[in-house]
């Protein structure tokens, strides 16, 4: 294997760390898997996927373009996360109402992997190199009726790992149903439809396109909101592997591909307590994250995530925490504000 091939595999592996525990792709030639990691602390606290959540938080639009609306006029959302392997994730998003039933928005998401060591086939250190992913997007939404809204997001995607680079265009298409009378919502999204504009080192890669659907429901008798999101719906079979001897992680791996495990690996469960209209505390459970980490010395918290948020005057603050495995504590922070409110 040549030094160039080794270098390319190293940088591609470094970037793939971002998607470990987020979505296990069945195709081994997918690129841009960083798109599977949400920059929303609210969504991250609820398991990492939620296409139906209705709240005063423009960062949710990343999950479903139909969640954008005129109610987000002049709202700004900022985000930061310290992720696995020293990765830093930063995001910024803005919304603008267009008359009564339309809205537009824009966003930028940056995923930096820091400085990585480059070696040759013998293990000799050749130096350092950088790696990063970037997505710039524009969103449009339209109120179809009193309860229904549709939206689309166009994304320009760019990745650069050492001297290797690639670019792509992708589209998210979504619909949202929300009935405020019974606080019930449903979302459906087709994500990351598109293709590469520029290839990595003359190799073609597919985008991690996905189909996701979910619902969210608020109880009338208690300030509790729960929801379920199904993702990875392109495939039914999502097998995973774990050590045959649980006391020895080096033992032979055992495949799990039962009906129950496949079903659970498609689902994310979320529960929130909302003490007031401006605060929430949420917990999520992602079974796929837990099972994907079964060979990575997972912690007792693997698969679970937790977070909370509060809005004070014109500012909203959200935080989230998860520990996919014992060596990976992940923290996320979001800040939202309304420029219009600040100017008055």
Explained architecture:
This protein is mainly beta. The chain has one domain: Porin. The chain has 5 helices and 16 strands. The strands form 2 sheets. A 14-stranded antiparallel β-barrel has the order 1-2-3-4-5-6-7-8-9-12-13-14-15-16. Strands 10-11 form a two-stranded antiparallel ribbon. It is globular and about 65 Å long. Residues 1-27 have low confidence and may be disordered.
Overview features:
344 residues; mainly beta; two-stranded antiparallel ribbon; globular; disordered N terminus
What is this structure, in a nutshell?
With 344 residues, the chain is mostly beta strands. It has helices at 3-16, 41-45, 259-264, 287-292, 339-342; strands at 75-83, 87-98, 102-119, 125-143, 148-161, 164-179, 184-198, 210-218, 224-230, 240-243, 253-256, 267-273, 279-286, 304-312, 315-325, 328-338.
Radius of gyration: 20 Å
Structural class: mainly beta
Largest sheet: 14 strands, antiparallel, barrel
Oligomer: single chain
Q: Give the SSE order as H and E letters.
A: HHEEEEEEEEEEEHEEHEEEH
What is the overall silhouette? globular
Q: What's the CATH C level?
A: Mainly Beta
Strand line-up in the sheet with most strands: 1-2-3-4-5-6-7-8-9-12-13-14-15-16
CATH architecture annotation name: Beta Barrel
End-to-end gap? 63 Å
SS elements, strand count? 16
Q: Mind telling me the CATH superfamily name? A: monomeric porin ompg
- What level of helicity do the residues show? 10-25%
- Provide a count of the helices: 5
Mean pLDDT level: 86
CATH topology: Porin
Are there runs of 5+ residues with pLDDT below 50, and where?
1-27
Number of domains: 1
């Amino acid at each position: 294997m040549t030094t160039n091939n080794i270098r390319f595999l190293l940088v591609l592996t470094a970037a793939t760390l971002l998607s470990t525990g987020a979505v296990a792709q069945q195709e081994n030639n997918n690129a841009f898997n960083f798109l599977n990691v949400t920059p929303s602390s609210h969504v991250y606290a609820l398991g990492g996927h939620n296409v139906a959540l209705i709240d005063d938080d423009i960062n949710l639009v990343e999950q479903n373009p139909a969640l954008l609306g005129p109610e987000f006029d002049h709202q700004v959302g900022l985000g930061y996360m310290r992720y696995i392997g020293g990765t830093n994730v930063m995001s910024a998003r803005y919304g603008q109402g267009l008359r009564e039933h339309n809205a537009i928005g824009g966003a930028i998401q940056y995923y930096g992997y820091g400085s990585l060591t480059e070696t040759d086939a013998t293990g000799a250190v050749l130096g350092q190199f950088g790696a990063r992913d970037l997505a710039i997007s524009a969103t449009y939404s339209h109120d179809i009726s009193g309860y229904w809204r549709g939206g689309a997001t166009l994304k320009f995607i760019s990745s650069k790992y050492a001297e290797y680079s690639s670019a792509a265009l992708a589209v998210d298409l979504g619909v949202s149903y929300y009935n405020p009378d019974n606080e019930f919502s449903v979302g459906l999204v087709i994500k990351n439809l598109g293709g590469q504009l520029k290839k990595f080192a003359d190799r073609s890669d597919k985008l991690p396109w996905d189909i996701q659907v979910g619902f969210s429901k608020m109880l009338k008798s208690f300030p509790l909101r729960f929801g379920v999101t199904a993702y990875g719906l392109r495939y039914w079979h999502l097998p995973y592997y774990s050590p045959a001897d649980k006391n020895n992680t080096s033992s032979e791996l055992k495949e799990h591909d039962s009906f129950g495990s496949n079903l659970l690996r498609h689902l994310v469960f979320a529960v929130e307590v909302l003490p007031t209209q401006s605060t929430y505390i949420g917990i999520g459970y992602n079974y796929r994250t837990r099972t994907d980490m079964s060979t990575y010395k997972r912690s007792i918290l693997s698969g679970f995530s937790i977070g909370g948020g509060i809005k004070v005057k014109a500012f909203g603050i959200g935080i989230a925490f998860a520990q996919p495995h014992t060596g990976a504590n992940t923290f996320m922070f979001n800040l939202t504000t309304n420029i219009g409110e600040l100017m008055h």
